[in-house]
Design goal:
By secondary structure, the chain is of the alpha+beta class. It contains 2 helices and 5 strands. A 5-stranded antiparallel β-sheet has the order 2-3-1-5-4.
Length: 128
């Protein structure tokens, strides 16, 4: 177990930093939850190791691994939501790499989706 005040990370052997930080504006002190994007995940990842890892930064309210609709396999990224903005900020400012299931993963601020976007796709069938 890790000490609650200690950031759950390890240092890579090569000395390279794997944490992708994109701290853009918009904090604003709303007191609401804040999400981080987690990329470079292995296809076998589940919600549990993400929740376990990121709970070292604060109280996690939700974890959503994005999966392929037809296979159910992880698409390699997830969103982790925290109850407190400070917890997300702590995860974003972690100096070492974030390690989940033995793999260095990328963490950045999740962008809110724009209203009315979405969809698209479809078609794709070959001619008659």
């Amino acid at each position: 177990m890790q000490d609650a005040g200690e950031a759950p990370h390890s240092t890579p052997a090569s000395g390279e930093g794997f944490v992708h930080l994109e701290q853009g504006g918009g904090g604003g002190g709303s007191g609401g939850s804040r999400s981080v994007y987690v990329g470079s995940l292995p296809p076998s990842v589940t919600e549990r190791p993400l929740r376990d890892y990121f709970s070292g930064f604060g109280d996690v309210s939700d974890v959503r691994v994005v999966r392929d609709r037809s296979t159910g396999i992880s698409r390699g990224f997830a969103f982790v939501s925290f109850h407190q903005e400070e917890s997300a900020a702590a995860a974003l400012s972690c100096k070492g790499p974030h390690m989940v299931e033995g793999r260095a993963v990328r963490v950045s601020e999740a962008e809110r989706s724009k209203a009315g976007g979405g969809g698209g796709g479809g078609g794709g069938g070959k001619g008659k």
